[in-house]
Amino acid sequence: MPRIPINIQEGKIQEESKASEIIVGIDLGTTNSLIAFVKDGQPNILKEHGKSGLVPSIIHFNDNGEVVVGNEAKEKLSTYPERTIYSAKRLMGKSIHDLENYVDGLGYTIIGDEKDEKLLKVKVDDKFYNPITLSSKILSALKIKAEALLDQKVTKAVITVPAYFNDTQRQATRQAGKLAGLDILRIINEPTAASLAYGNGIDLDVVENIAVYDLGGGTFDISILHIERGIFEVLSTHGDTFLGGDDIDIAIANYWIETYSIDTLAFSDLKYLAEAAKIHLSTNSIFKSQVNDIEITLDLKQFETLCNPIVQKTLQSCQQALNDSKLDKSAINKIIMVGGSTRIPLIKNAVANFFENDVYDAINPDEVVALGAAIQADILAGNRKDILLLDVTPLSLGIETVGGLMDTIIPRNSKVPIGAGRNYTTSIDGQTNLKVSIYQGERDLVKDNRKLGELLLKNIPPMPAGIPKIEIKFMLDPDGIMTVSAEELRTQTKTSITLQSQYGVSEEEMAIMLLDSINNAEADMQSRSLQEAKTEAVMIIQSSHKFIKQNQSWLSELEINTLKDYLKLIENFLKEEDKDAILQGLENLNTFSRPLAEKALDKAVEQNLSGKSIL
Ligand code: ADP
Ligand code: MG
Questions:
Q1: Ligand nearest to the CA of 366
Q2: Quick one: 35 and 162 in the same domain?
């Protein structure tokens, strides 16, 4: 067979387009998302002229099953709360049990399966969406926006995540990117990105310790970094994936409910108003509004009282991060404010007091993370050789040992990438299999930590207990995603896995998810036609009973009993949810009752003619 020559021209075109492809930086926020890119060496937020680059991380499903994202979706929040999903990031990598009280306050429905923790889904009408799919809808919208504004294809991105995101949540984020058609080149921590944006402008010979305090809508992060000659070294990090401006809004809404006993307004509307009050109080001393003829107010003092528990929690995290960094407060040169909630003066003051230093708020707190992500993208594109990022893992990683104990292999705040191993042995004579359960967290008992997955080392040649030498190795990649391997060193029996956590989604499952929408369409149609048959049956049963009652004067006993038997039969089919039987039952009833209905109609006409209405 003749060989096909390589088409040089095509190869060339591809190379050219490759060279000019922009890698974007994405801040996929709980509340707002942004895209940035580097142009002529400087990071820029992608925005339409004169507009903000913030895209609300909100997804709305309209009647036709179409999806809208961003401001357009935000507008639907109060009118269609059950079809408008916000804070999907808070659901990433979580089980229904992790969310407990949280789900109650939402305007949309989250369902979980008691038996299978994996199944956390958002229900809209009769469709179900998992958090990965939801996040991918936001990323798709961002991708489309970027392609339109940059007038070129965008397929590569750096995405930021809260430093405190665990392995599961990072993988979920990466999968969301993949579903949106984005190749996620790197996942970096939000505070680290912020430090890059800050450090981009400073002199290379500056040596500084900085704290990045990031309070957004749904998450809080604090990181302590050391910057020296372009090397950004994360010393420690701490935070809370369930703490942010949202909690302040909820606190205000609850305060109003208690104070004014307003129960006529939907909680989501009240929360919306609470957010407006919060933003107003960043620059004013009192907020007033009218809710169904009741004047509700919030003054600065009360507002600050409500904020205080949230602020205190963030300061505890700051203290923990300081302890871990082994630095004294006085060694911190700059405190960088990130996230929309740091616009609250009380918060700035509390943080300044805590660190006994002024805070640095010169970069727009909404934009700083995305700008940093763009700089990291530029580093990966090979355009920046002057900066190096040394990130850390926020949580300890280890395995379960006898007695349900956590044995840490990689301690928290270790630099990534990192590899570490430790030797173990068997506890039973002749043991041929060893199950290794992998956990992430700081507690001594594994039951209090997060299980990431399992590894099975099979076919260990039988030996007395304690003799095999089994090395378990953890490799953490620069994104904070882990590979685990186990090897019996005497016989070199090996196995390894990239962690596919029990809450995450495997490659196969990803493929299934992509197909799911098609298959679901079939299932959805099935359930819809059952629903329609049920509704019709209920209506006909009701009107038939009414018919019997209204016409019992002339219906024979046999006719009445036969009608009732048919109705009973349909009621049974309803209970069994048997669509075909319901439809058959309705048809049988119809065949029997049609002549009776005609007779009734004749009688009505007769009565009408004689001047008496039957109605
Ligand atoms: P995320 O990182 O979670 O996406 P952002 O950094 O975009 O969040 O911050 C969003 C949060 O900031 C919201 O809770 C919003 O109400 C709050 N926020 C925005 N502007 C202000 C302001 N002027 N005063 C107080 N809070 C604000
Ligand atoms: Mg943020």
A1: 1
A2: yes
